[in-house]
Design brief:
- The chain is built from 13 helices and 13 strands.
- The protein is of the alpha/beta class.
- The strands form three sheets. It has a six-stranded mixed β-sheet, with helices on both faces.
């Protein structure tokens, strides 16, 4: 991401400037048991982990300790609201659409009848489409390993990621279908849990809907690389009507936007009308949000993204469950929270809205969030490097 764009973002979010921040120290949340959290109130599971030691190494134990120390996201009135419904997820980052009831009727319908998301960011993961897809489908930060993207590494090493969206939905009885035209991603899609993959980049949306109608409940994933996808979207929505699937299907669409650091996210389905999300978010938050809406049991401590409908604590309290977007692919990234914007280059924090911190409070807050960002990058990488979930989840084929 170009520094000029980030500087412009700084100007937009300018408020109180804190010129100094302390060096980061650990900001891990309380242990879940000590906090009194349980699976009835939070998105977490009573886990039975296998051996937490590798031969001659304590790294698996260290990864486990980190995740179990993270704060889970709370359940809400949205938890399970769309349980049992089909899901269509569309990744179209090159599309920079405009909302027009006549010119883009499909997109306008998703916007007017769906969730209003007001602050969506597009992090630059330095991995192009691979990075976007990995973050979108897994809720983990896409870190490079040995010169390979996270998505490519996952496919070539057959990494086991049970909370990746297709894997979690497949375990819940969904038929998971990917419609994408790049055969270089075939191994990655299979590793993530897709059962059927169409490698025809020209897959007709109506034909895809016909395939989905025969396999309910279904999760259909589309990658559209063109700059004008309205015709495909309108065709897909119309096909849902033809097959009587409209009321039983959720559509989530990620597109681009004119400014380099922002994106558009659309979330549409019966029951979501009039909902609003005003906190910062990115594609990293899509998997936990959809799992929560569909009522799929998962442990939110193991994901870097957060359920967008989970309650937000006060801006002065930094935790792993807070709204947080790191803006580019580095453990020392600029970031945005509900409290403000942080520029890593200048080590400067800009408060947003009506929030007020003293100099000491701001320094402590920056220190804590910087540590959270660093740990998310470090442990997302270790999950892939050590095939962590295969090592600790019984029955994963370790």
């Amino acid at each position: 991401m170009r520094r000029g764009v980030l500087s412009a973002l700084c100007a937009l979010l300018a408020g109180l400037v804190i010129a100094r921040a302390l060096l980061p120290t650990s900001a891990r949340a309380q242990d879940i048991q000590a906090a009194g959290a349980d699976s009835g109130s939070y998105n977490l599971l009573e886990l039975e982990l296998a051996s937490t030691e590798t031969a001659g190494s304590g790294m698996i134990r260290e990864i486990t300790d980190y995740f179990l120390s993270c704060t889970p996201t709370a359940k809400s009135e949205y938890t399970g609201l769309l349980a049992g419904k089909n899901l269509i997820l569309i990744c179209a980052p090159a599309w920079e659409p405009t909302l027009d009831e006549t010119g883009t009727p499909g997109l306008y319908r998703l916007w007017s009848e769906g969730v209003r998301l007001g602050e969506v960011y597009a992090p630059d993961w330095y991995q192009e489409l691979d990075g976007i897809e990995f973050a979108l489908l897994t809720g983990l930060i896409p870190t490079s390993l040995h010169g390979q993207t996270a998505l490519a590494w996952t496919g070539r090493q057959e990494i086991y990621l049970p909370y990746a969206l297709p894997a979690a939905l497949a375990d819940a009885g969904y038929t998971c279908l990917a419609f994408a035209g790049d055969d270089s991603r075939l191994a990655a899609y299979q590793a993530l849990g897709f059962e059927t993959i169409s490698l025809s980049g020209e897959t007709d949306a109506a034909a895809a809907a016909a395939s989905c109608a025969e396999a309910q409940p279904f999760f259909a994933y589309f990658v559209w690389t063109g700059q004008d996808c309205e015709a495909d979207l309108s065709s897909l929505i119309a096909a849902l009507g033809v097959y009587g699937l409209e009321e039983d299907t959720v559509i989530c669409l990620l597109t681009g936007q004119e400014t380099e650091c922002r994106a558009c996210l659309f979330l549409w389905g019966s029951g979501l009308e009039g909902s609003r999300v005003e906190t910062p978010c990115s594609e990293l938050d899509v998997t936990p949000t959809l799992l929560n809406l569909l009522g799929i049991d998962y442990d939110s401590r193991f994901l870097c993204g957060r359920d967008l409908f989970a309650a937000v604590s006060s801006a002065g309290s930094a935790s792993a469950a807070m709204p947080l977007v790191s803006l580019y692919g580095s453990a020392y990234s600029d970031w945005v929270t509900d409290a403000g914007y942080y520029s890593a280059a200048g080590n400067i924090f800009f408060l947003s809205g009506d929030w007020f911190f003293s100099d000491q409070e701001a320094a402590r807050y920056v220190q804590q969030v910087r540590r959270i960002v660093y740990e998310r990058y470090a442990f997302s990488r270790r999950v892939l490097e050590y095939d962590y979930f295969r090592a600790v989840f019984p029955g994963s084929g370790a």
